[in-house]
């Protein structure tokens, strides 16, 4: 008669109840459940994951800078969440299709995003940031939770095709309260669709702590829907990769959906428009700075003597290169002309809209005549 | 030509669409084994299997949201919303996703989703089973909206809606499901007129009645009754509510100069408002009287025993015709008051 | 990593995994968890519960008959679900407030419904069947699941008032798939609102078997939301009452929401407009006829020598009396006049609607003049 | 009179409503500790406590649905929807429950719920943050719809909306949150004009511009510019979209005979269609030219860099004024084509 999960309400202890492979201090711990999923990850591979995370953080800080300089309307930082995004993103197969929210810059990166892809949407040039087919990612989703149902439908299509791709959806801790996310679990479970749900619990939904959405671990919801779940240390890139490989394998092999809760932390503001000082303690932030996902992997590699200063320099250089390209792409963007607003509303002609476009064209032309 | 009910014509249309394109899948509550509460999908699960005729969990947002995902994967989902009043839980997915994804991705993603809605009142149903929500979708850019009124149109337009690369809200008047008519099952889609066109269902000279859905029949009855009084009324079935075929509409209005627009839905910011605003814009100098609306009142749909006082009927249409023809009518005495307003 | 609940997909075995006090054959079984909640229920009290169920079944069959005779537009039978409705309904305190779906005829009965209340809505006279304040029940709800959120909001109001009432909501197995029902659990859990969720799993949502909504017990969902739950034999009126008393006590004492899944069966069609022959086996129905909740309590009372034929006759008479009153109330109903359609749309004057009412009044008057 | 921004006026209105009636509770995402993403509820949680200023889980249907339950219990919930585009998940609860419960229960249950919506575009925001959904609610019987355009109205109408026993959709133009004006904080509600009335914000003789929300400012700018050309334009701020105050509107139209209706929302079946259809009905014989709509296009709201090509501005309003005054305008050459339509 009593809840089968224990209350988790504070950001301080939240990480203790997660699966992990590398402890916050960088030491390796054995995890019978996860270890076997990453036995191919040697130090060289770890260095690549480290590089990914450093580059991602650099992309992110460049996004913040571009916004500050008026080049972007807004930016949603993901610093602190590098391990969750790189670890899960690097576990994907090329044909897997991702349905993200708006904060998955790292997942975009693992899918081969081009420099302009990171900023096109935030600059206000286009509503979608990139070509979904090119990256195998659906457009960024702003309506909280809506994308989770899209992933399930896509997964139903995979089933129908008899293919072995997986549909993956990312969403936040706040999103778990939306009806859509719950319906997504229900549909996925009912059809045993190959879907992996990745909840990045970064402890905050704008100003609302995760305890307002749930006083129990979010991963604890999935089993009640018939979906196996795992609560993983979201600042441990190896654990995230291992858990994601388990989940993808589960879904790919026809068993149905799987669910991950990556427990991590949003170190920055919600977006560049937000002021977290109004609602969260410095002490909490400090605590999580000590759990920085990049520092943790560095500590691990250093302790093993596997991280040289030259290497770090080369990593920093690739990061700076990407940031430079991103800035150049951003600043060089051409805004589409006025009449572009009428394009691609419909795939086939719509007489009402054509009339409006014609009228507006005549209206614009009247200025040129004058 | 085959004589059949609108329900059977829709069933035949779905079947043909599934034969034509294997990417067509049907989704909805009770559409599989039961064949839908109106039996529109009757027999299709047996013929095409549970993978293409999908009984879904009871959640409309989930149905439309997963249809979006299927469209991402290249499918053409045809969704049945069990009754008009149950479309609102899916409103967010329809308005923010289905309607916008093509635009948002600059055409890279297509949303060829058809949302079928058994629609409107007059069947003595319980609450939430007689709604006329079409104006919400007409006001939503990115959607097409079709409302059918006879078996032939139902068959043809449904196939066209499914074949369209755009999302279509497809409204089926419930009270016409058993209404019979001739249907040409053999004709090819390529030869058919596009689904966006209105149709003059009865030509006339004195005034134009513009309507759609089950109200087309009521308008025809009114026109027949008026004929006895020596009046010649033109009746136009809009068929497509987005876009609206203003070529057909304005051609008629320019001839008659007098317009009644009728629908079951409530009045404020409804489709009739749109039609009258556009007619006024396009045909101002041809209008000989103010166009008049005959609509459901601006009230929640009333209980079954009172619905006859809500739904426009023959008499209300004729009263409106009298008004646009400046003949004696119910508001004659109230006209002075009308002026004071 | 694996689901913490076992698959339940067939109506045959579903009842085995529930809590109960009286077995289907009428024998009493001991249930340490439930027994203490009904230790005041002696044979006399059981006879009252039995009477309630018989009267309810009679009300229900009268509803079907009235519909067949054209007196009602529709009727949603609840036969088979008498124990679930009477058992839980009789556990309520007078001031508890119920948010039902459309099938809770038995709950209405326990709240003192008048004869006309059962039919007013189905006859098409009014949208709501009764005065909510008189019965402490919100109007019947047709939008599946919507009422569960209302119950939670009402519960938040109870909290705010510092009162010890409980808000109770009834919904079906199909309803559990709706976003609203899941959001209701989330809000209730977050605020620890005094709400009892009663899911009557009658195995069908029109033609859809419960296995389509969930392959796992519905009661298994609640704990993941931090809500304790109980899966109870819904055809055992004592078990339903005991479980409901536990749940009400839990909620009333400030611990937050509780959840019951009453596993029962819809023996009739979904409504009088439905034809269950199209989708369900006679064998399944036969199986559940053997588990009839009324027969079960009768067997129990008879075995104890506590049910006389005279008593049964008196019960049958009260049932027939209620049915007769219900029929009379139904047939005697006056339909409101045309202009009633404009009443009570708004609580305060609305000039637009007044204009329409005036026009329509003039329109109606024009016939009288003619 | 105090000089303050519209944001502060709304904050003051909420505070006063909470002081006036302890049954008033505020609900929404981030409205407590943060004071709302626009700071409209700033300081209220500190003043009234977390029981009356309720941060909710992230689910709009849940917010409105629980507000309905609170209303059943006698509360007067004031809901904040964080941005216009996030109201759609709550659409079902608003349309099927909030709007209908009073009618459904024959007045036995009241729904004094105010739903505040930071609203519309022009702020360079990301997708779904610049929507103008008001027509959906105007079309929904049972709701009242208010759209404010200055700090004084914002303060007064918000208090009136909260005090009303009916549900009110309350639209607050985001781009005016920092707009300043004089506010009378002391006046009593009893003396104030009812919230359903329109207002002539600028009298004029040659044509009437009817609008609401942030577009009122644009219309005033247009009228000022037109004055330089010797034109006298009347500007009406509707303020209430359900009901619409046709007394004020028709009085003006009967004087000027020429009408432009402007709004940001898209055109088909929008509020302008409603206003024009009604004006045509009430003032047909007074109209000297076809009323003209100036609206957002029938497109999904475009990305920020393109929004200026979507939103009606001063020039588009003046172009429409030229049309209703039969002066040279952008469509002059297209008129013949217009005839063919
Ligand atoms: C339907 C909807 N409601 C509200 C919002 C406003 N909003 C944007 S982000 C956000 C918080 C999301 O929190 P979470 O899901 O935890 O994701 P995070 O931002 O932490 O990555 C809110 C409330 C929205 N975008 N969509
Ligand atoms: C939002 C919504 N969608 C669909 C329906 C149509 N409908 C009415 S009852 C029903 C099945 C409900 O099943 P369940 O929740 O198990 O309750 P039961 O009828 O078995 O008591 C459906 C699909 C509805 N009333 N509301
Ligand atoms: Mg978060
Ligand atoms: Mg059921």
Characterization of the model:
The complex is a heterotetramer, with 2 copies of chain A (370 residues) and 2 copies of chain B (341 residues). Chain A is an alpha/beta fold and 370 residues long. Chain A is 43% helix and 8% strand. Chain A has helices spanning 32-35, 43-68, 82-89, 105-110, 132-135, 146-161, 179-191, 210-213, 237-252, 282-289, 293-303, 309-331, 351-369, and strands at residues 97-99, 167-172, 195-201, 204-205, 208-209, 229-233, 258-263. A 5-stranded parallel β-sheet of chain A has the order 1-2-3-7-6, with helices on both faces. In chain B, the strands form 3 sheets. A 7-stranded mixed β-sheet of chain B has the order 3-2-4-5-7-6-12, with helices on both faces. In chain B, strands 9-11-10-13-14 form a 5-stranded mixed β-sheet, with helices on both faces. Chain B has a two-stranded antiparallel sheet with strand order 1-8. In chain B, α8 crosses α11 and α9 (246-256) packs across α10 (271-283). The longest helix of chain B has 15 residues, at 6-20. Mean pLDDT of chain B is 96; it is low at 334-341. Classes of the chains: A alpha/beta (370), B alpha/beta (341). Chains in contact: A-B, A-C, A-D, B-C, B-D, C-D. One thiamine diphosphate sits between chains C (103, 142-144, 172-175, 202, 204-206, 266, 270) and B (29, 58, 60, 82, 86, 89).
Q: Which ligands does the model contain, each kind named once?
A: thiamine diphosphate, magnesium ion
| Order of strands in the sheet with most strands of chain B | 3-2-4-5-7-6-12
Give me the secondary-structure category of chain B. alpha/beta
Rg of chain B, rounded, reads: 20 Å
Strand content bin of chain B: 15-25%
Largest sheet of chain B: 7 strands, mixed
| Overall helicity of chain A | 40-55%
Biggest interface found: B-D, 53 and 53 residues
Mean pLDDT level of chain A: 95
Give the ordered list of helices and strands of chain A. HHHEHHHEHEEEHEHEHHHH
| Low-confidence regions of chain B | 334-341
Q: How would you describe the shape of chain A?
A: globular
Strand/helix succession of chain B: EHEHEHEHHEHEHEEEEHEEHEHEHH
Structural class by helix and strand composition of chain A: alpha/beta
The first-to-last residue Cα distance of chain B is 54 Å
